Amino acid sequence: MMDLRELYQDIILDHGRHPRNQRALEHPTHLAKGHNPLCGDRVTVYLAIDGDRIADVSFDGRGCAISTAAASLMTEVLKGKTLDEAHALFAQFHASVTGGAEPTELPEALQEDAERLEPLSGVKAYPTRIKCATLPWHAFEAALKNGLAGSDGATVKTE
Amino acid sequence: MDTLVADNPRAALDPRVLRREFPIFDNNPGLVFLDSGASAEKPRQVIDGLAEFYRRDYANVHRGVYALSARSTDRFEEAREKVRAFLNAADEREIVFVRGATEAINLVAQSWGPAHVQAGDEIVISDVEHHSNLVPWQMLRDRVGAKLLMAPTDETGEFDLAAFEAMLSPRTRLVAVTHVSNVTGALLPVERIVALAHRHGATVLVDGCQAIPRMPVDVQAIGCDFYAFSGHKAYGPTGTGVLYGRYAALDAMPPWQAGGGMILNVTLAHTDFQEPPHRFEAGTPDIAGAVGLSLAIDFIESIGRDAIRDHEEKLTGYAVDRLSRIPGLDLVGGGQRRISVLSFNLDGVHPHDVGTVLDQHNVAVRVGNHCAQPLMDKLGVAGTVRASLGIYNDEADIDRLAQAIEACREMFSR
After folding, report:
1. Which one of A4, A41, A128 has the shortest CB-CB distance to B357?
2. Closest Cβ–Cβ partner in B368, B411, B414 for A39
3. B347 interfacial to chain A (CB closer than 8 Å)
């Protein structure tokens, strides 16, 4: 049995209790709502995209320690990134929390951000919790795809 | 098994002895199973009896002229009679086999519903209903243009009879309520609900999912028109369930699914349908499931439903007392009388996280909205942690639950 402290590391409890960037953006260019029907967690991800760069990113909603920390850390690493960098980080993150194959190696500049997300990889030992960690990222991807269409209530579900 | 308790059905049951009848506990040592409200584990005599039925007596029912088919039909129809006696229904034709309570309620909503509920009519449910006793009525409402009203529970979780009575009117066609809440464990005053509803000419359906495994149920004493339950929550196989309907009510209902077994005569132009219950059992039924359900009823009766209720009430009281002493634990109101189901939240810890920590301590509970989102909204919570009891649980299980909750508090307060 894995030690639960591997899952609930200090940084996760900290971001779970005191999430960063937890607010609605006043003028988002993109937003999407995510919902995990299993536990009822809901998260809305707001983006302000300028050209191909994420000028600002935030989230709100209610969720467990894992999904809240995942959303908080996601907003921290995504701010200022290009869309290509964001996709690369998500691919890396997805592999790390699902235990899937590592994608092509991350550029040097993104290594530090990937390490910031690393504490969440503890969920891979808890299959029922993986979706908690990926929910905000799926909402982020849906927001990029759908622009502001998500504001009328369309919701992305955990896969 | 029978020799353990059959001599005196009022004897207090011993969960530690009963647990030996459930192989799941042999195969999962140390498991504290507190999710019987979602589905109960299965005793050996159901598991083995199901296989034995397939080995010895199985063939399709109501069709063959050969002896084996007749024997299989007998077992199937004996199961129906067993359910009749279990519910104290007046007539075994009032027992319709379905997949579960969800299907039973949908059957009533789709068959009885449009024939009796018209535009402007009203359907009354309670605010603690499971989605399966809510969404079918929303669909009926939208289909015919009726109104759906929600009778409230008060701040303690008690069903508010006065508020309910004030909602009744000559427009009320149906009252659909649960017998025991799957979230709070509150026991609803179904006899009084039925009496008030009938005074206004309304039909009453009771969802008995959480009540059936835990207390004696007499549908004639309750007086309801329909009573639904799932076999799998009552130690029986999945895919089994029962709709009880007063014969006059069932007889006035059109079929809801068509197929073999539910017809008398078919020509291209016309079909005559069977009488209840066969009218509502199109296609080959879950024959072995019904036999398995009858074995589960035998198992329950061998322990005695009074003894089961005494056990569940006593253990519920112990759990309420034990959990109430945990700082920061908020028990969701179960009204004046609660049985076997306890929902709670732990201050500052999301239910999903509590569930993971409890699982790590080998304590199985349910977390989430328990298919009761309107109630979660009313309580202002995203979800709860729910512990629900069965005949195999004892005080040591509750102590293990409490210890795991304490460990959870510790983990999240560091």
Report:
1. A4
2. B368
3. no
Find out whether A40 and A92 touch, Cβ atoms under 8 Å. no
Of B219, B129, B144, B209, nearest to B176 (Cα)?
Answer: B129
Could you read off the pLDDT of B73-117 as tens digits, one per residue?
999 999 999 999 999 999 999 999 999 999 999 999 999 999 999
Give CA–CA dist B98/B245, Å, rounded. 12
Q: What pLDDT digit, counting tens, does each position of B349-382 carry?
A: 999 999 999 999 999 999 988 889 899 889 888 8
In the A/B pair of chains, how many CB contacts fall below 8 A? Answer: 50
Rounded distance, CA A147 to CA B7, Å? 71
Bridge partners (DSSP) listed for residue A47: A30, A57
- Is residue A71 less than 8 Å (CB to CB) from chain B? no
Question: Does the beta carbon of B382 lie under 8 angstroms from any beta carbon of chain A?
Answer: yes
Structure token digits, residue B306:
């009074």
Quote the Cα angle for B119-B122-B123, to 5°.
Answer: 125
Prediction ipTM score: 0.87
With the C-alpha atoms ordered A122, A126, A127, A129, is the resulting torsion angle positive or negative? negative
* Chain B partners within 8 Å of A126 (Cβ): 356
Residues 6+ apart with CB under 8 A from B202: B124, B168, B172, B173, B174, B175
State yes or no: is B371 an active-site residue.
yes
Measure the CA–CA gap between A9 and A19, rounded to whole angstroms: 15
What is the DSSP code (8-state) at residue B232? G
What pLDDT score does A99 carry? 86
* Separation between Cα atoms, residue A36 and residue A39, nearest integer Å: 6
What are the tens digits of pLDDT across the range A56-110?
A: 999 998 889 999 999 999 999 999 999 999 999 999 999 999 988 777 788 888 9
The answer to whether residue B373 neighbours chain A at the CB level (below 8 Å) is yes
Angle at B11 between CA B3 and CA B26, to 5 degrees: 55
